[in-house]
Structure formats: structure tokens, C-alpha cells
Amino acid sequence: MRPLTLTRLFIRCGILAAILFVVVVIALKLGAVQVSLYGLGKDLIDVLLRRANSLSSDYGLIVLDIRLPRILLGIVVGASLSVAGTSFQALLRNPLADPYVLGVSSGAALGAIVALIIENHLNLSPEIAGLITPIGAFIGAAITIAVVYFLGLRDGEIDSTTLLLAGIITVSFLNAIIMFLMTTLSGSNLRGMAFWLMGDLSTPQPRSLLYFLCIGFIVAAGAIYTTASDLNLLLAGEKEAMHLGVDVPRVRIVVYIAASILTGLAVSVSGAIGYVGLLVPHVMRLIFGSDHRMLIPASALGGAIAIVIADTLARTVTAPTDLPVGTMTAAAGAPLFLYLLRRRIAS
Amino acid sequence: MSTAVRHPLPGDAPRAGSDVRLSVEQVSYAYAPNPSQAPLFTLEALSFQAKPGELVAILGPNASGKSTLLQLISGALEPLSGRIFLNGFPTYSLPVKTRAQRIALVQQESRLLFPARAWEFVMQGRHPYGGSLRFESAEDIAIVNNALAQVGASHLADRWMDKVSGGEKQRIILARALAQQPLLLLLDEPTLHLDIGAQVDLLESLRRLAAQNRYTVVVVTHELNLAGEYADQVVLMQRGKCLRVGSPATVLQREILEQVFQAPLSVEMTASGRPRVTLFSTK
Amino acid sequence: MHEVVDEFGRTVRVPLVPSRIVSLAPSLTETIYALGVQDRLVGDTDFCDYPADAQKKPKVGGAVNPNLEQIAALRPDLVLVTKELNRMETLRALDTLGIPAYATDARTVDDILTTTLKLADLLGVPDAGKRVTADLRARLAALHDNLHATPPTRVLFVVWTEPLISVGKQTFIADAIRKADGVSIVDAAQDWPQISLEEVARLQPEYLVFAASHSETGARDFDALANRPGWRILDAVRNRHFAVISDAVNRPAPRIVSAIEDLAHQLHPAAFPENPVPEKSAAAPARAGNIPAPSPARITRDVLPSTQETACAR
């Protein structure tokens, strides 16, 4: 018998965090433009020791303004999607659940398209115009969360099966509207939307948005983590969980809202990156087991690692052309999914 | 859910100074899937009491309301009228966590979505004693080991739950209930999937545990002879009505049993004063 | 540095004479060469292929997804984008990074001329701009003189065959067709409307127009189309009334006027008796290394066999 202790939890998370750090350092080095990390390190030290005022322009703009924010965005998005995926798999008691199954990404896509169409008719200042798409996407996500929630109620409580069905129906319905609206978009908007739908991290976001994302992640993921033990019991069955002292309706609402917020935030800035929310929890489960006290932080770190690797590949494999990160996650995710599926059938 | 008027009972205060642990008082229930339809299922008002260390058998054919009564006792359902008291506190109004510290329910099946080891499964029984996010203490580990030992499953602690036999699984599920350190132990048809040897083992354990740990044990079953041999009290039910409550000897009598189970039978008394029922073939 | 307002209405701070320019659209690259400032062009997209020298410039990726790092590494003091081809996200990304970006938006042929003038001012060569646009205006005026009495030919501009896609009436391509005394039969507000063969059959265009980088491709395209089921319902297909012009018509750049002239000649040969082959003076200033545009071949009806008398009567 080896129960999970706080020490063991920290050690394992520490290892994952170390792997993430190494991946980030490598990602900083790789890219369409060559950057010497030794030179960068020296420059940083110079700045810290006040021997120079700022980084020499080579590294400054490229690394600090382009690459690092993109990597950080990837970390937050990857962590958000993976924690959301873990939560939905527990909430819906379905290992095939991913963050998009309840319609959040379709709602966000529709919100983004509507925002694009509206923007064409308004004259907005550049700062606001830059935020229109993420805000529209987030509003679309929020409305979808609410609608699916109410559709998924049965006898006044969330019912897993009804919720899943409501989500699937909503996704189909929204996708139909999205396809219709896309025929009305003009050339460059259409291309932009296509990128968005594939999942793309290449657009630098304003700093304020990044901070907002980080805070949102900490709050929502934290809320989910406080129910980790409850989630372990939920997996045994909702009736059993109740008899073992779990306040099932409360846990359902907290997890549903928090996981939807995580998904909405991630999708608003990066589009619908696929496979991460579905597969990272499975891989982490294979390594660490199904105990959510370990699984949730492991998924967060694992998702960050996965997205940073995928995004680095996306911007180096066919340099200088930038591929959307969703292509890389799909290219790796589909075979991995097949492999996991076969394992599951075999066991 | 029922919306009828609840009959008020005299006094809400806990009853002090009595030896009674479980008190079911004039409890009835009705279930209507559609508020506009007539209720599908009704349980007519019934009452009985049980003490610490007692084993009560709720006996009856299928669809007699046994499982519903157990769910009412466990606090999962709200009675239409009447109340159920555990040490003087109404079970339905207890907060979920407190209830789980006092009442443990053993169901027939336990379906796990993701694989778990036996000790992890039993550790779930300690959940009512912590927050939504808790880490096991040394005391928890000791209690889990103790629970496994009490059911004779210590050697199974590290086994995966999907790799144990039916009888072993039943024991581990029981160990989880013991880990809750409850006052009331409820079991819903625990012998359904067990062979005869295992059935006897289980009932023996239950009787022993009831005596040792001063549990009140309530077992739902349709096995006449198990009830007759092991119960201190029998509640005989048919079609939502409680026909008779009392010791096995007073309840398991030929005329009433033939009426309830619709089969010719005879009842003998064993040397220990327990009734034994023999069924004849219907020709 | 001074402030200018681009064709989006954005106010941008740019150097008085930008010396390191990155172009994110092939039409802008062509315009830069036409204005003679290609020495200051330090980067363009993978698709910037005209003139041939443009292919040798450092590449920053596609027009839709250029690599920001690559752009930044070139240290440009001005990046040019178009509303039609580039994404808003790219424009905003450049703003966030503090790189001056100027956006153009040309919807008609006149817009193209105005944009060329404005770009010339922006890049510090107003005289070259005036010269180039004056020449283009003269050629367009000459066309108008020749053709204003002739009724316009009804055409279908074929962008893609499966599915059948044409151009909307608000595109510069539709405007270019009008300048060549033609009119697109497709009356849609979208930029790239998909139309059904039924609809085309109902409208019976007199000519089909293809844009191709090589004239032989255009002829092959037409043959492939003619052999597909249902297409023989069109008079234009049976009479082999099709025109092939250079794909310069797809780019809102000075070279489009050559394509317009060529189209006019193919649609209204009777109006140009003395001048069967249009001149190819591609408004190029006298600078070495500037390659004139290739002359579009008038191969169509003269070369291919026709089953009927070419009585494209009007």
C-alpha cells in the first residue's frame, strides 16, 4: 500500500516542471531565426548587473517580444485544455470526453465569426479591434455554457448523460450556423477564420490579456483541484459517491463551470486546438494512475509540455512558413489516440 | 418526487437514554415519475426499531418495496410521511458528509470507470472524514488495514479490483463500508451473486461484526433461510406493505409465508430455536 | 518620421523615406518594382513571383501566415499589407511589436491607380508615381475612346471550375472587366461567389474568360471544360468563344492594365484593326535590371480549330 502523500505529489510535479523548463529553453532557441542561447544568457546577465541598458536588439525583439510570449501563451492554453479535459472526463464519466464535447469551442467559434462580421461594419480603434475576436469568442463560449447547462438539467440537477447529449446536439447545431456564416465572409476574414478553427498561437496577444488568462487559469484550475478527492469518488458512481459523503450536485456545478471557463479562455485566444484535452489526461493516467489529486496537476504540466513541443514544431518544421499548432497536435494526436484505443481494447 | 403533506411528529429533540439506535416511525413513500400521473409505487406506513448489535432482515419477494425502504433508511430518499431516526437524528436531514460517517450502504455492484487497487477502494470509505481534497493520514491507513482484516481480505490489499473474484469483491466492498466506521450498516441483496458457501460466510461475518463493533445491520434479502438463521428481527413485506415485524420465529410461519411467496412450504424449528423453511414443488 | 493615414483609416508613424520595406502581398511587390524602389525591398512572401527578381528576395512565409520572427529579423521600417489578402491578425501583430505597417485596400481599377500614387508618396518617389499612373491612365483612356461606342460583351470570368466560382461585382476583377468593355454576368455581393451551371445557362454569356500564367494552360482549361457534361449547353462553349488573359488580372497592381488591354482586344477585335497586338510598355522606369512583362499571346481563335464559322456576331 503506497498512498499519495504531499511529498510524493511535489516530487512528481517537480520532475514534470523540470521537463517543462527544459522544453521551454529548447523552444526559445529554436525558430525561424537563429538565436544563440549563450549570447542571450550573457545579455540577460549584463542587463541584470546593469552593465547594459537593454538587450541588444537582435535578441530583444525576437525572443522577448515574439517567442517568449508565444511560449507562455502555449503553456497557459495547454494547461487549461488538459485540466478541462481531465475534469470533463470525470464529470461525464466518459474517457472519450474532451473539452469541446459540450459545445464550448463551437460557441466560441460562432462568437468569433459574429465579432468579425460586426467589426466590418464598425469603425473601431486598433486597440479595441484587436480584442474583438477574443471577446466575441469568450461571449459565445459563455452563452453556450449556460445553454448547455440548462439543456442538461434533469429534475433540476445536472445529469451526465443528458449533459453529454445536450452538448453533442449543440455542437452540431452551432457548426451548421458556422458553416453558413463562413460562406458570407470575405477572403482574408475567411482565411483568418480557417486558421482559428485549426488552432493557432501565432498572434501575439496584448499583455493584459495574458495576465487575465493566467489568473483565470489559477482560479478555475484551483477550484477544480479542491474537489479532487470528490472526483475520485464520483468515478465510482454518483449514487455511491453520495453515500460516501460527496455533495454531488455541488461538485458537478463547480467542475462544470470551472472546466468550461478554462476551455472558453483557451479557445478565445488560440482557437480550437485539438487532441490535447483528450489525450494528455489519458497519458498522464497511464503514468500516474487515476487519482485526481495527482492527475490534475500532472495534466496541467503535461498539457503545457505537449503544446510547447507542438508549437515549436509548427513554427520550425516548414520555416519560414508558420503552420497552425492544431496541425501538429492532430498529426501526433491521431496515431497516439489509435494506440491508446488499442491498448484499451487489448486489456 | 412526492409533494404531499408530511405528518408532524411530537417532538424533534433527540431521544435520550433509550437503547434504540434505529427508529423507523410510520414511514411511507410514493414515487411518481411524472407529477401529473398517479404514483407508480407506494410504500405504506410502517414502523420498526433496531438496537446496536442487532441484525435486521427485510424480507419479501421482488417488487415488495424492500430496496426502497433501504434507500429511505439510508437517507437517499425523503419519506412521504413519518421519519427515520438514527440515534435520535432524522437521517434525511443530515448533511451528506455526516450521514456518510454514520450510515454505510453496501450495494450489489460497484462499477469502476478506471482501475483501482483494493486498498484504494477501501480508502474511499475514509472520505467522509476529510475535506473535498484530503490526503490520507496514518490513522486512515490503519483503519483501512483493520477493515480488510475484519473481512479476511488483507491478502488482497494490493490486488487490482478487476482481478478479484465475485466473493472477494463483495468482501472488499464490505471492507469499504467498515472503513466508514458507521453506526448503521445497510446491505442490499448482498448474496445475489454468491455461491452458497460464500453466502454463509458473509452472513456469519455480518453477525460477528454486528456483535464486535456494535453495528446495527439491516440486510435486504429474499433468502428465507438466511433471514431465519441469522436475523434478530425480520420485517416481512409484500407489495409495499409491511405484513409483520418480529423475531424470525414469529414472522416465518407457514400460513403467512405461503400467502406472500405463493408457494407451498413447511416450517420447522431447529435445535437452536431458529425456523427452517422447506419449499415443495408446485404441481 | 511622420504620420500618415493608411487606406484602413489607421494613423501610422513611418519614416520620411522608408529604406527597409517588407511586402506581404504579391501585388504590393509588383507595385514596388513598377515604382523603381525595389532596392529598398528587403523581404517578400513566397508567392511574390513577378518580376523574376522578386523571387530572389528573402522570403518571410505566406501572405496569410507570414513568420513574424522572420519579418522582425529583417528589421524593416515599413511593412506593407493589403486588406484583401492579409489577415487582420497579422496587422495587429505588427502593431503589437511596434513595427510600422501600412494597409492598402483597392476595390476598383481607379483605386489601384490611387493606391499606386499614395504608395509612391509614402515611399518618397512621388514623381515615379505620377509618371506610372499617368501612363496607365492614358492607356485606359485610349481603351475607352476605342470602345465607348461598342456595347459591352457579357462574360463569365471563371476562377475555378469545380465547383464553378466566379467573381463578385464589388471586386477589382469585375471592374477590370468593365474597363475592357465587358460585363460580368454574375451579380453577387460576395467576393468569390459559387454559381450553378444552370444559372450560367440561363444568362448565356457571350464569352468565357480565363486567367492563366501561360496561355496554353488557358486553352487546355477551356478544352477540359468543353468536354464536361452539360457545358455544351452554353453558346460560348459551342462557339469556342473564350479569352485567356494573363493572371495579372488577379493582382491589384499596375500590370493589370496590360491584362485589361489584352482582354479588350480579345473581346472586341473589330475595334482595334490597326493594332492587333497591344503594346507591352509596362510603365517601367529606365533602370537596368527591370524586366518588362511578357506579352500575352493572342492565340485563341486563330490557332484552335473551330467547327463553325467564327461568327461572334454582335
Can you summarize this structure?
The complex is a heterotrimer of chains A (347), B (283) and C (314). Chain A is mostly helical and 347 residues long.
Offer a few descriptive terms.
heterotrimer; A: 347 residues; mainly alpha; ABC transporter involved in vitamin B12 uptake, BtuC; two-stranded antiparallel ribbon; 76% helix; globular; C: 314 residues; alpha/beta; Rossmann fold; 2 domains; four-stranded parallel beta sheet; 11 helices; disordered C terminus
Domain module tally of chain C: 2
The low-pLDDT segments of chain B are 1-17
Distance between the termini of chain C: 57 Å
Count of individual helical segments of chain C: 11
Distance between the termini of chain B: 44 Å
Q: Please outline the major beta sheet of chain C.
A: 4 strands, parallel
What percentage of residues of chain B falls in helices of 4 or more residues?
Answer: 25-40%
Structural class of chain B: alpha/beta
The strands making up the biggest β-sheet of chain C line up spatially as 4-3-5-6
- What is the residue-mean pLDDT of chain B, rounded to a whole number? 86
Structural class given helices, strands, pairing of chain C?
A: alpha/beta
The averaged pLDDT of chain C comes out at 82
What string gives the helices and strands of chain B in order?
EEEHEEHEHHHEHEHEEHHEE
- Alpha carbon gyration radius of chain C: 20 Å
Q: Quick one: CATH class of the largest domain in chain C?
A: Alpha Beta
Secondary structure: number of strands of chain C:
10
Strand order of the largest sheet of chain B: 6-7-8-3-9-10
Using a beta-carbon cutoff below 8 angstroms, give the protein chain pair with the largest interface and the number of residues from each chain: A-B, 32 and 41 residues
